[in-house]
Design goal:
Helix content is 0%, strand content 57%. The protein is mainly beta. The N and C termini lie far apart (37 Å).
Length: 116
């Protein structure tokens, strides 16, 4: 499974961005998909995750501002980010859990920069 992320960029505080991630390969092998982020000097942290159904999980810091969605048929996961803050600045990585190999596949990372 390979993941290709897109949609990062530079925005001002309060604006919005949408990140997208497309997975190639056997879509039936993927369970949870989601996004992590890593800011300079900080550990990678989970931003949001979504199962094959409707279950979602968000970091407290993005709850109510970010929305994760998934298209099972197209093997894609998206992250709508609203009301962005400078502290959201990070490299965002999409991931997908492969149940056949019991490992995570990772995208290449996309930079999100929010200016104040």
């Amino acid at each position: 499974v390979q993941l290709q992320a897109s949609g990062g960029g530079l925005v001002q505080a309060g604006e919005s961005l949408m990140l997208s991630c497309a997975a190639s390969g056997n879509r039936f092998s993927l369970s949870t998909m989601g996004w992590y982020r890593q800011a300079p000097g900080k550990q990678r942290e989970l931003v949001a995750a979504i199962g094959r159904g409707t279950s979602t999980n968000y970091a407290d810091s993005v709850q109510g501002r970010f929305t994760i969605s998934r298209d099972i048929t197209k093997n894609t996961v998206s992250l709508q980010m609203n009301s962005l803050k400078p502290e959201d600045t990070a490299v965002y990585y999409c991931y997908a859990r492969n149940v056949l190999t019991n490992t995570n596949a990772w995208g290449q990372g996309t930079q999100v920069t929010v200016s104040s």
